Structures are given as C-alpha cells and as structure tokens.
C-alpha cells in the first residue's frame, strides 16, 4: 500500500501540490488525470521519491520513503518519466540492462540477463535486442523503456510491495500498443504486491482500464474513485471547461465531446 498524507509541494512561491491525501492499494491500476499543469508529474515524482515534499509524508507500507535509502528505493520502485531521451549509442539490450544496475554488485549475472530477456519478450523486443537504441522509432524506444523499468523490479519481493510509476506511458504508442500496454498492466497486476500508478490524458482509456481514477486540478485532488464517481459531466466541465456526453452501455462507459 502507498499512503500520501497532507502532501504539499512548492516551487518558490508557487504551490504545485496542495495537501493531497491518498491511500493506494496494490493489485489495482491507479490512473491520474487532469489538465496540463495540474500537478500530475509532480505528484508522481513525489510518490516515486524523486522530489522531496515541502510538507506531508509518503509511505510505502509503513515506511516513510524519506527513511528509505536511494539504493533500496531503486530496487523496489521504478519510474518512467515523460522525457526518456538517451543521446549516446547503446544497444537495445544494454538500455534494458540499465534497469538491473540497482541490483548488480560488479557485473550483471545470469539472473540479470534472464530478467532482461524476459522483460524484452514481454514488450516484443527480441528482434530489436541488438539494434542501436538511437535508430528506433518513438514507439519502439518507449517499449524499450517499459522493458528497462520492468527489469528493474522484475523479481517479486517476499512480503513487500513493488511500485511502478508511469508518467504518460501512452505517448508515442499507436492505439494498438496503447491497448496492449493497458491490458499488460492489468495482467502484471495479478502478481502479488505490485502497485501501479500512471498518468494518462485520454479519459476514455482511464474509463476503460483504471480501477481507481485520481483527478487533479491546480495541485488539488478534486475526485477519486471509479469512473462513475470521477468521470462525471460536472467534474469534466469544472476541470476541462468542456461539456461531455457520457455514454453508459453494458460494461462500457465513455465520454464524447
Ligand atoms: N520547478 C518549478 N518551478 C516552478 N513551477 C514549476 C516547477 N516545476 C513545475 N512547475 C509548474 O507546476 C505545474 C505542474 O507541473 P506538472 O509537470 O506536475 O504538471 P502536469 O499535470 O504533469 O502537466 P502536463 O499534463 O502538462 O504534463 C506546471 O504549471 C509547471 O509549469
């Protein structure tokens, strides 16, 4: 479980997050939505321990993350940031292997190689393993980074949770891979003690795949819950200044503008 209590983050005089409270369970897909500049990336970075809150606490289980050392943090949580560009020549498998560095003492061992291979299989990268990363398309690069961060937290930790933070993971992916990734995340969540939080802009993706939707606006958590609770006409109007038509049919729930 991940618990956020009274989280506030300020940059100079600007409050980017204002007293956010959350309790996120493992085994569920939590998707953060909200307009540009709402504070979604800032929230993810704070939950991933990449930035230190101005006030408030973030706990992994019963541990305050400020008490978790950098190396230990890197073994239990992985983050996909919005900008992933690498500007030096590496083969695809070498980029994926970077995910294993927090676990490696001197040189990667058989276990690290196996986890990287399995992570690459998961994202259908086997045939690209020896390609120069810089020669890949945007979508291919994105899949390499998914494999890298999955390799980082590949191994379940007995009795403890692993945390995966994905900031706009659907950027660069065509609609086929977008759906494939979301389905894959749902499958991964069947593993014990895995917690995934992602940021998406597509409200219909959130409606279709999220178990829990977090709506941020001006650094505040405006609504949280399932799609019927969060993706209401009123919330969308207030936050995006758009008037949606909400369709509900069988198990489908979607918004048209
Ligand atoms: N270091 C900083 N100093 C001042 N303002 C900042 C700083 N970092 C972020 N901001 C501002 O804080 C706000 C929230 O940024 P954040 O990146 O969290 O938004 P977001 O919801 O992820 O937006 P987007 O959907 O555009 O990616 C933005 O207005 C951004 O310009």
From TrEMBL:
GO molecular function: ATP binding
Cited InterPro entries: AAA+_ATPase (IPR003593), ABC_transporter-like_ATP-bd (IPR003439), P-loop_NTPase (IPR027417)
Coiled coil: none
Alphabetically ordered keywords of this record: ATP-binding, Nucleotide-binding, Translocase, Transport
Pfam short name (any one): ABC_tran
NCBIfam families registered for this protein in UniProt: PRK13548.1
The protein's name in its UniProt record: Heme ABC transporter ATP-binding protein
SUPFAM superfamilies associated with the record: P-loop containing nucleoside triphosphate hydrolases
Cited function: Part of the ABC transporter complex HmuTUV involved in hemin import. Responsible for energy coupling to the transport system.
Segments forming domain ABC transporter: 2-243
Originating organism: Chitinophaga hostae
